[in-house]
Amino acid sequence: MKKILLRVVIGALALIIIGIFIVGLFLGDIVKQGVQTVGPKIAGVDIKLNHVGFSLLSGSVNIKGLVVGNPEGYKTPEAISVGTVSVSVKPGSLLSDKVVIPSIHVEAPEITLEGSLHGNNLSKILDNVKAATGSTDKSGAATSGGEKPSGKKLEVDDFLITGGKIHLSITGMGGKSATVPLPEIHLTDLGKNSGGITAADLTKRVLEAITESATKAAAGALTDIGKNAAGLTKEAGQSVSNATEKITKGIGNLFKK
Asked: Comparing C-alpha atoms, which of 124, 42, 35, 127 is closest to residue 82?
């Protein structure tokens, strides 16, 4: 009798473990499909994911091959490309109204900042996200415009972006280009001291931080380009060209639009 009971218990545990594994696989597909379906509606650009791995037992999510496209009218193939994103989730919170995410680590993203005196791709995507979410206060609640947040909310305790690069593509100014490091971006306590924030608002917060960091790095790089160009023309006994003057004088406003 005891042996039969033991076999039943072992069999039940095995079925539970298999069930969790299968659910984890399906959750990965659900997350992938959700990102690729809802993401473009929020950002106004194509968003693709190569793979989403989900382990309910460890509460870990592994995202690979995230690519965020560019708005219409921009020539570079994509705005953001990320090889790996590591996410930790508290499994128990998946059944609550607020999903608790202790950490998100974005490793070595490739950011393409394509711009001119009329604006840039990252700012355009950010404008699309803001239009989709409406104005929000610090708690993530809608204050004007947009729809009121609904459904599950998120709490992200630690959001870290490291090892990134910014590829600059400057149109209308001699085709200037450069690659510079993306400074580390570290956000904490997103939605922690409230009922949480929506996925759309989380996207907005992160994109704001990326855009601000990228534009500052771009301004510094373009200033160096302008100074170098001015030095070369002066050494050659020539006056600084109008294009060079635009680079040096317009540096503060180039990526603010």
From this structure: 35
